[in-house]
Each structure stands twice: as structure tokens, then as C-alpha cells.
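User: For a benchmark we're assembling, each entry needs the component sequences followed by a predicted structure for the full assembly. Here are entry 17's components. Please fill in the structure.
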Amino acid sequence: MPPAEHSEWNWIDDVRRRAGSGPRVAIGIGDDTALLKTSTATLVTTDMLMDGVDFVVGETPADLIGRKCLAVNLSDIAAMAGRPTGAVVSLALPRRGGRALAEGLYDGLLRLAQESGCPIVGGDTNSWDGPLVVNVAVLGEPTGRGAVTRAGARPGDRVFVTGPVGGSLPSLRHCTFRPRLSEAQALHQCVELHAMLDLSDGLSSDLFHIVEASQVGIELDAGAIPIHDDVAPGQPHADRLNHALSDGEDFELLFCVSEEDAQTLLSQPPGGVELYSIGRCVPEPGVWLLGADSRRPLGRGGWEHRFT
Amino acid sequence: MPPAEHSEWNWIDDVRRRAGSGPRVAIGIGDDTALLKTSTATLVTTDMLMDGVDFVVGETPADLIGRKCLAVNLSDIAAMAGRPTGAVVSLALPRRGGRALAEGLYDGLLRLAQESGCPIVGGDTNSWDGPLVVNVAVLGEPTGRGAVTRAGARPGDRVFVTGPVGGSLPSLRHCTFRPRLSEAQALHQCVELHAMLDLSDGLSSDLFHIVEASQVGIELDAGAIPIHDDVAPGQPHADRLNHALSDGEDFELLFCVSEEDAQTLLSQPPGGVELYSIGRCVPEPGVWLLGADSRRPLGRGGWEHRFT
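Assistant: Structure for entry 17:
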């Protein structure tokens, strides 16, 4: 269903004009469904974001809320080394201030849609007495050798991340981040990505998805984990490391490649891709943090969670 | 993202077992995105439903809420004469009673998914301090001669509906209805459907979508509109007719075909399809209600809305 087609808001016409273009859009906003020209395989992902949980209306600027709601889905498409083909957007708008909120949301949504080549092709706009809820679903298509899952990591693989982690909430980076679509595709062209995901819950937690899906263990090199500048500097290193391991909402890619491909990446990194080698896959299931002279098991919530 | 993969609820494993099957599901619940085998064109639609607006938690049984949230999307796929290929489901669950609610919702969702050949391939399950919100997005594929839009009606076309309308809210038919997928495909095989949609807002309101998209007018024959038995019998006929015109949430199909195809349908109705011829397309844009000796313009909300 199209966004608020019964509404008389002028911005809806504006949304239609700005949203529906693209060579793949056979039918955009305004019919019972949209119709996209697709290849033989279609990626699909969805995320629901709520006021007070994923953003705070009145504190987080509305365009950044809109941007985030699309970006987290694009990050999932990137995690499969996919290319987005279209998005549908559902809103439950609070009655008070809902119109201005919708306009701001769509400003951010449409800007990122444009930047990432992901037209908004449909949606469902509602008002209610509750807080703002936004749901976005994104379709995409695999690239190159196909979709990269979480299940293909092997003992001996090297583990990489595409950027420093930690501190994304206070800095608002959880709203402003750029989904790593181009990075994923560049990596996918260069090497065989055995397993990949995007860091949403936090490094130490997300690693378990690869551990479980691939039936491997992962040893992290504590000294190699890139801590983001957003993590406040005036605290002990152990605390800063814990932020990097557990804050979440980094939306960098984490991936596993063979040692040979790791050497290729380190000697000839693909243009525009930041790379940090942070660990290695091992046969024994679990996640460990290697220090200078220690090897400690990590829990899902970071190492302090396990030891205090 | 998969439903509540961090949760320890046992039902999640159960959901995965019951949800993810089907020959088109290359990757189901449990990775960053799902992957569906698709044809060269993919339909996509989404609907967000909220407690207190589309259902009432505590009054509407949870399995019927779940069923409705998928069914309204399948109805949109039917309106394009499409076949569903997969669905993704997002939940914002209230903290109090959220677990039982989720189990009930998924009972209804999975049952209808099974009935309609639409596997649930992914989702996003959240808890918050607000009321229940459910978003479903459904992918599908066109059948036969392709997707049927709202835009192809022509003057002279006959207008049909696939069942009686009105009274769906008090009877809970808005939750229990069967999406007209098989009916749409049977009709699409028999005749050339010029325009079609599913009746969600109400007959008199939904007609305007065809009027605007097709640039035609529609004359309804007041005596031919099938009023559902759910509309209480002990009231004047004019009131019952108004319920049929304006109640909404009927989820029957409304479609336009040439006079020749109308005769084909009336003489040899496709098996299993109820058919009511209720009007005709005319050149002058607008919607009119023809009585025995009257012709009155209809507003979006039904005729009383315009005349009292």
C-alpha cells in the first residue's frame, strides 16, 4: 500500500516524485503493491525501530531517525554482499506533531535512498495515539559469487572488521553511519568471503552468530581491536575495550577469509575499504579474547559481563 | 534480521521449523537477510497494524491478530493477481504478556502462511513499553499476463466484486477473512482484468482509487450491491447499504472487465469464485450511485457522508 494516499498533505506528492524512480521500478508508490524488476534471487530483510528504544523523538533529529531506519536494513543487505533494489516504509505516527515528523523522516529516508540507489517503492502511513514506530523492509540482489552468509567460516580463517567500533550511541553515529554496501561489494570481488555479518548488537555478541552458524570458534586479538574515537578517552583501556566489544550499533562489517586471501587484502586493500585484522577462527566452538599472556572466554555481552 | 534470535524462548526454534520451508527459500530465518528464488519481476507490499487501531489486544484473539496482519498483505498480492513467495514479520511486543502474545500471533501467522503457500522467511522481534505493533511485508510474483494495476479500467467496462460487503468489524471477519488469491488467479486466467484492487477502506472510498488511476467514472447500481449478512438486518435498507458502502475491511476484490468478458464470466463463472456485477465505468470522472430513478454522486465515505 502506498504511503498515506488518502492524506491531503502536499508532501506525499513530493515523496512520490522523489521516491519512485529507477530503472528497476515497474510499479512504484500508488497501487496495491509495487513491482520490481528482479534477478533470479532476491534478498529481503526488515527492521522495526521504536521511539525510546532505537531513537528518541524530540532529541534525535527526525531526518536522522528516517536515515537510520533505512540504513540498518541496507547494512543487512551489505552483510550478504548484496545490492539494494527497493524499500517499503511503514510508519505509525503519533497524532501530535505527526505531520512534521513524517516530513523530517522522509527527508532523511529519501536522501539515503538516493545515495544508495535504493528507491522507496511503497509503504503504509498511519496515525495513532502511541509513540513513533517505523518499519522498513529492503529488497536486494546478490552480487558476484552470490550471497555471503554467516555459515561458511573455517578454522584457520582470519577475521576482519571494516572500521573501529564502540561509542556509536552518544555520538549519534548509530544514526549517521554509512552502510558498507560498496565496501562489501569491493571485498566480494577481490576475495572469497567465507562468512560475513554487520555489527549491530556489539562485536562480542555478533561473533556468536558466526560461531553458531559456521560451527567454529573465534580467537580475538585484544590488542588489534580498533576502538573508535567516539569511546571517551579518559578511562582505563580495559573499559574502552569493553565499549568496543559490547556497545553495539557500529554497523561495520565483520568477515572471515582464508589466510591466503587475508594476505591479499593486507598487501593490496581494495580502494576505499578500511580493514582491521582482529582475530582468527579455530576448531573449538566459542569466543576467546587473547591478551599479551592470557586467553579468556568471552560472553555475548562482552568480557566484563562474564567476569564481574 | 531473524525473529528474536537472542531470545531463549523455545517457540523461536519452533517458528524456524514451521516457517522456513518451501522450494523458493534459499536462505530462511537466521541470517542477515533471507534469500528467495524469484522470477524476473517481484511484487512487494507492506502493512503496519497497531493495537487499538486494527485490533484490540485482550479482545481480539492473538492468533487472529497474527492471521490478519499477514492476510491484509496477501490481499494486496491478490489484488495484483499475484502469487505470494515469502513474508517477513516485525513485532514490537509489550513487555507485559509479550511472550504469550508472540506465541499466539505466530500460531495465526504460520497457519495462514501454510494455507497460502507463503513461507515466513525472516523478521525482527522487539520488546518495548508501548502497545503491540506488527508489520508484515510480503513478496510475490505476477501470474499469467502480468500484474493487474488500478490503472486500466475503460469506459464501458463492467465492475464486479467477489463477495458481499459491510459489517466486517463487529463480526471479526476483518481478522478471519480468506485472501482472494485463488479467485484472482482464476479470474486472471479466464479474462483480461483491466483494473483490480482489494476492498480495504470501504467500497465507496476504494472506488476512487480506480477512478483516479484509470481516469474514468464509475456508476454503481445501488440494488446490485451485495450486502453482507454481518450487517445487522433490523435497520432501514438505506442504512444497511451505507454499511456496505463505507464499513471497509471487506478484503473482497473489485475489478473491471470489458462487457464481452463480463458476459463470459456471468455465463461461465470460474469454479470457486463468487461474482457480483455492481456497476459500470463511464467517461466522466467520479462515482455515482444509481437508484430506481436517481443518480447521486458518492463521496469517499459513502453517500450519507455527502448528504447529511
